[in-house]
Amino acid sequence: MGSLQLEPAQSRPDLLAAPVAKALAVWPPEAPVDVDQVLVAPIDPGLADTAAFCEAYGVGLDVSANCVVVAGKRDGLTKYAACIVLATTRADVNGVVRRHLDVRKCSFAPMDEAVALTGMEYGGITPIGLPADWPILVDARVAATPHVIIGSGVRHSKIAVAGFWATGCGSGRGCSASCSRTTCLKIGSGAPARATTRARWRDWSAGSDGTTWCRCRERRALRR
Fold it and tell me: Tens digit of pLDDT for each residue in 154-195?
């Protein structure tokens, strides 16, 4: 993809954050993408931010997926989640995401919190290797993209993987864990991306209002 020099991620732990390398080491065999199809490439850490990266390495914004950490509060309890959206869209944080988390207000988590909780570098946070109790919301456009570029947990590399990986067992914690924490929604708007999502894939449904979603072993109405 573009001018990236890709190779199997497992062979380059020096290009991965520790939680990412750990997740790849226990990648489930039933995942929709084999672990050797998760690729990594070194990049200039000064070009890790989406716009600069895409321009420098010839990667389209429509195949670059951002992963952002969001936080919401209800009754004094803070809930965290990860959102994955393409760089051509932005996550509807205070709409679909807030309702999914069942919180009164939802916003992007502060940088220091996101870094401390994930064990990853800001600007390199990726859905692979996130805390096990975080919901992962993936925009339907990501799952429909044949191959996407995501973070590696560090700023000096990027991961390339099939888009539908995000809707499968890619958490590296086994199928049952991934099923319970991942949801695929139409959470992206047509505006330039500010956020990202992550989700679980089984079957697809398009509602009469245009909302696209899927959830493993459970179907439920979800409005934008």
Answer: 999 999 998 766 655 344 332 222 334 555 555 555 544 333
Residue 81: closest CA among 210, 187, 223, 5: 187
Q: Dihedral, CA atoms, 137, 29, 19, 144, nearest 10 degrees? A: -30
Token pair for residue 131?
Answer: 């805390």
CB 87 within 8 A of CB 193: yes
Burial (Cβ within 10 Å: 0-12, 13-18, ≥19) of residue 103: buried
Sign of torsion, CA 78 83 88 89? negative
How many of the other CB atoms lie within 10 Å of CB of 47? 17
Answer whether residue 114 is part of any domain: yes
- pTM score of the predicted model: 0.76
**Domain housing 124:** 7-215
Q: Is residue 77 part of a domain?
A: yes
Q: 220 in a domain, yes or no?
A: no
**How many folded domains does the chain comprise?**
1
Helix (H, G, I), strand (E, B) or coil at 183: strand
